[in-house]
Design brief:
About 30% of the residues lie in helices and about 25% in strands. By secondary structure, it is of the alpha+beta class. It folds into 2 domains: about 120 residues, no CATH class; about 110 residues, OmpA-like domain (60s Ribosomal Protein L30, Chain: A, 2-Layer Sandwich). The radius of gyration is 31 Å and the shape is elongated. The chain starts with a helix and ends with a strand.
Length: about 260
């Protein structure tokens, strides 16, 4: 009896697919798919692309689910049982893919990053589990995995005007830079010093001051235990000011800065 039922459903599927093209299959949203009911033995849909969700799990409310990826012709497909758990094909089993419970659960998590056609067998109050896309994390410079070519603007390493003497606020970022280098012993950096001198050419005094500021950072790191071979320093005078025409003191502070280039 079961075999006869299976053959009947297979025949229904073949007839329906022969009558439909991929373009004619109705489109459904993920939200509309949830709690869907139908008196039909088989329902076909194309899942609408959704910017909100990355994955979906089919959990209950059907006898089975057949999924077709990219096209509706069944070349690239996946079959789920009545609990939404993936049924491995012979090809998948022969390929040596793990199908323990944890692996099966992973394969049952359907990606929405590609076109998905869904065939629902005896759908009634479909239940699905939706996985929202994760927002990208904006890591702070000292939390990132740094690589060659990365440039870090240390906005909180500030100097007294006309001197290579740190303002008290600077030590927080100085110590963060030390910890980054301590934890990543492969990193080598160039410390770049800058001065504030709006509306003027880069004088020898400015050049020497920028060099003194970059060396002040380098000396601080060396005293903390970083090997000198990992550090170089360079001064740019006032040639790369963030605010080249400023008259405001708080903007001038950001011109007196240090940047780090990962080598």
């Amino acid at each position: 009896m079961k075999k006869t039922c299976f053959l009947f459903l297979l025949l229904v599927k073949m007839v329906l697919f022969s009558q439909k093209s991929c373009k004619n299959i109705p489109v459904i949203t993920i939200d509309s798919l949830s709690n869907l009911s139908s008196t039909s033995q088989v329902e076909y849909f194309k899942i609408k692309e959704d910017s909100l969700y990355d994955f979906v799990n089919f959990t209950s409310g059907f006898q089975g689910v057949n999924l077709y990826f990219d096209t509706c012709d069944g070349i690239n497909s996946l079959q789920l049982d009545s609990t939404g758990f993936v049924i491995p094909s012979n090809e998948m089993i022969n390929s040596g893919i793990c199908f323990c419970k944890s692996c099966g659960m992973r394969y049952s998590k359907i990606s929405l990053k590609r076109v998905v056609f869904v065939e629902l067998i005896k759908p009634s109050q479909i239940k699905i589990l939706k996985h929202k896309k994760k927002s990208p994390i904006n890591y702070l410079w000292y939390e990132k995995e740094l690589k060659s070519g990365d440039k870090i603007k240390l906005k909180r390493i500030l100097f007294v005007g006309g001197e290579a003497r740190f303002r008290p606020i600077s030590y927080e970022d100085l110590n963060r830079l030390y910890y980054v280098l301590e934890e990543n012993s492969h990193l080598k950096i160039e410390i770049q010093g800058h001065v504030n001198s709006p509306g003027k050419r880069n004088s020898q005094k400015n050049q020497e001051l920028s060099e003194a500021r970059s060396k002040a950072v380098m000396n601080y790191l060396i005293k903390k235990g970083i090997k000198p071979t990992r550090l170089t320093s360079k001064g740019y005078g006032n040639t790369k000011m963030i605010y080249p025409n400023t008259k405001l003191e708080y903007e001038m502070q950001f011109n007196r800065r240090v940047e780090i280039l990962v080598k």
